[in-house]
Amino acid sequence: MQKTQEKKNMKEMEFFTEYGDANRYRILEVIGKGSYGVVCAAIDTQTGEKVAIKKINDVFEHVSDALRILREVKLLRLLRHPDIVEIKSIMLPPSKREFKDIYVVFELMESDLHQVIKANDDLTREHHQFFLYQMLRALKYMHTANVYHRDLKPKNILANANCKLKVCDFGLARVSFNDTPTTVFWTDYVATRWYRAPELCGSFCSKYTPAIDIWSIGCIFAEVLTGKPLFPGKSVVHQLDLITDLLGTPKSETIAGVRNEKARKYLNEMRKKNLVPFSQKFPNADPLALRLLQRLLAFDPKDRPTAAEALADPYFKCLAKVEREPSCQPISKMEFEFERRRLTKDDIRELIYREILEYHPQLLKDYMNSEGSSFLYPSAIGHLRKQFAYLEENSGKSGPVIPPDRKHASLPRSAVHSSAVNSNAQPSLNASDSRRVSIEPSRNGVVPSTSAYSTKPLGPPPRVPSGNSRIIIYECN
């Protein structure tokens, strides 16, 4: 047994390739662990930036998990926006046919909104407003691309101490196409119950809309205001009870439109409940914030505003600017044609491999020219695998764990590939990406500023929990 374990450790530690950008990332520490694998903080030695490298283990062990990873990396490549977490690169695997783990390089964020809410009971009205503004701006961009996130919750909103938020975890997201069969499109909906729209709790509709994400943002915003979940239901029925306790029983025409017979019967037989005034439920909140929140939490999805309409609400009068709230071109159906057929593990491996090459444009070009037959390319995975394995093995020990450095230099680029590779090259962005929002720290380094937001200073930033609070970042639940 011991020999088997030693053999396994040796296999994890060995270098199977030493080419390419193996020295580009210097691993610092483990910041997260989960069923998917491990996340490490690292330094990009070319730019000096801190990044998060997510090692996803055994990607192809289960087809459903591999598909989820494929959707997420594809969507994050297509959705480039300041309020959506960015994949900076995906490391090249040793070969197209043999790789089973992937290493995704994200921008590093300090915490998430769940931890920020827990650590701060003194968030100001300006914090509330700025947080909601960023979340809605991300939604506008997603929804104009016809993407529904479907799993929005505080843990999936990353946060920095300068008040910057970014939406992450697109594993459950879907692109809506007009001819998509709804029975196929929505059967795998498993998002967290507390942030789930009422029409999802009771299968009210035959086709869902972006309003499901608007509801989730309303629940998150209410949690920002009070410091605790708004509808912590213990079951679907309990969830609907909590929702109607606050919003009152739905209108008869809303109930009549419910497709599910059992849900319709349950709502019809429910005792009459009145709407609780939001000023009573949230006594310390800005009245304009509550007016918008009530719109976001409308029981009938048709009564909820779109993200663009919510951004135009008077609540954001001193903050919103249309030019800082870009839309996105609808995503091409061709990008997700794989959703229409039954895929094998080899099919998904090929599709993920192609997504990886999108972050290495010259190599993608060479691969396309060679039709993938005998294509060889440099990989940095061996170096990272050694550092990850060392950190995983030693992370429980006292004192800082420093990963081992390389023991010899990489071969020159010319020795492994004839074409020059631009390591800084990134996939091209949509035209709308040129309208990026500028959110920079102020002179004192703590206040996010925008040119339209000069009348009210935001005040001190929320406290970002330190240490193990970052464990859940980038985790796919």
UniProtKB/TrEMBL annotation:
Its EC number is 2.7.11.24. The keyword ATP-binding applies. Residues 25-316 form the Protein kinase domain. ATP binds at residue 55. It catalyses: L-threonyl-[protein] + ATP = O-phospho-L-threonyl-[protein] + ADP + H(+); L-seryl-[protein] + ATP = O-phospho-L-seryl-[protein] + ADP + H(+). It is an enzyme of class 2 (transferase). InterPro entries: MAP_kinase_CS, MAPK, Prot_kinase_dom, Protein_kinase_ATP_BS. The keyword Kinase applies. Keywords: ATP-binding, Kinase, Nucleotide-binding, Phosphoprotein, Serine/threonine-protein kinase, Transferase. Residues 414-425 have a biased composition (Low complexity). One of its GO terms (molecular function) is MAP kinase activity. Residues 396-470 are annotated as: Disordered. Belongs to the protein kinase superfamily. CMGC Ser/Thr protein kinase family. MAP kinase subfamily. This is mitogen-activated protein kinase. It comes from Arabidopsis thaliana x Arabidopsis arenosa.
